[in-house]
Amino acid sequence: MIITGNKEYYKGIGAINYEGKESDNPFSFKFYNPKQLVMGKTMAEHFKFAVAYWHSFCGQGGDPFGPGTQQFPWDNSPDPMQRARDKADAAFEFITKMGFDYFCFHDVDLVDEADSLSENEKRLHEIGEYIAQKKKESSVKLLWGTANCFSNPVYMNGAATNPDFKVVARAGAQIKMALDLTIALGGENYVFWGGREGYMSLLNTDMGRELDHMAQFLTMARDYARSNGFRGSFFIEPKPMEPMKHQYDFDAATAIGFLREYGLDQDFKLNIEVNHATLAQHSFEHELTVAANAGMLGSIDANRGDNQNGWDTDQFPVNLYEVTEAMLVFLQAGGLKGGGVNFDAKIRRNSTDLEDIFHAHIGGADTFARALLTAEKILTSSEYSSLKKDRYVSFESGNGKEFEKGSLTLEALSKIAFNQSPPKRVSGKQELFENIINQFI
Ligand code: XLS
Ligand code: NI
Ligand code: NI
Question: Are 18 and 34 in contact (CB under 8 A)?
Answer without folding.
Answer: yes
